[in-house]
Amino acid sequence: MLLRVKELRTRFATDRGEVTAVDGVSFEVAPGEIVGLVGESGCGKSVTAESIMRLLDERSTRYSGEVLLDGVDLFGLTAEAMRQVRGGSVAMVFQDPMTSLNPVYTVGNQLEEAILLHQEVSREQARALAERALAETGIPAPASCLRRYPHELSGGMRQRVMIAMALSCRPKLLIADEPTTALDVTTQAQILDLIAELRDGSNMGTVLITHDMGVVAEVCTRVVVMYLGQVIEQAPVDEIFTRPAHPYTRGLLASIPSLTGDTSGPLHVIGGKVPTLWEVPKGCRFADRCLFAEPACRDDAPELLPVDGDRSVRCRRHSELPEWAGVSHV
């Protein structure tokens, strides 16, 4: 297994006391696999990714659990060793390339510096590798692109540059945080096709963070559904869409607009709101929004337990829910 995340917890020190933003998250990524990390905004997806990369300010952040990359626990590495891992063995693509790319340096400057940091090559060799990385991501005239500044590129081109930078050192694992946000539909499809092609060509494992279930259906092999800092369901992608076991997962699927153009009924919404990290319920964290909750759900916190096949769910009533048949059974 390429990546094993075991009982990951990320705690932040705040003026109101310590809060746990990621609470006991566990999942795995095999070489060549694309695992989707999904859920509403604020559920802990990005914090999970930043914790894996150890990008958070460790003066105010406490990690626990294990993050094993090829059997090496990243939490046990020194700060210098972790800097070598970032951009080398593990790379990350952020959702807003304009805040990730430096506006005062050319694309070439930034790509070359990333390559020189992790590879023992000359400046000329770094320039050639940077040009090759841009070409691999489908950017036309890559040599010309190296001389341009981020503001001279379209949103899709900037995202391709970020992917080229992430992949320039041939990482074993790519973490892509909402890589298609704010892009038009055509460009979204191109970026997703690119990630799938790069996965197929290099056997690179990928963690794809998104709230878009349509994106998940297109490229992911497995899905990890998060809610309020916890994993509430894990399953192969086809199982998630045909037999969702958790009421929250059903709600997410029912919220997808119809592809048939049928607008006769209202768009499904999940009632209520996500509690804050200072108001985490003692029982099931989804109970107050769940159509199937019973009193015991609010008293006892359910565990994430294996069910049939290669899947797990955090719901005490999952076996009692009506058979899934789309929106009508949510």
Describe this structure in words.
The protein is an alpha/beta fold. It is 32% helix and 22% strand. The protein contains 12 helices and 12 strands. The strands form 2 sheets. An 8-stranded mixed beta sheet has the order 6-7-8-3-9-10-12-11, with helices on both faces. Strand 4 and strand 5 (72-73) form a beta hairpin. Helix 4 (107-118) crosses helix 5 and helix 5 crosses helix 7 (155-167).
In brief, what are we looking at here?
By secondary structure, the chain is an alpha/beta fold. Helices cover 32% and strands 22% of the residues.
Write the layout of secondary structure elements.
Layout: E1 3-14, E2 17-29, E3 34-38, H1 45-52, E4 61-69, E5 72-73, H2 79-85, E6 90-93, H3 97-100, H4 107-118, H5 123-136, H6 142-146, H7 155-167, E7 173-177, H8 185-202, E8 205-210, H9 213-219, E9 222-227, E10 230-236, H10 237-242, H11 247-254, H12 295-299, E11 305-306, E12 312-313
Parallel strand pairs: 3-8, 3-9, 6-7, 7-8
Antiparallel strand pairs: 1-2, 1-4, 4-5, 9-10, 10-12, 11-12
Helix pairs in contact: 4-5, 5-7
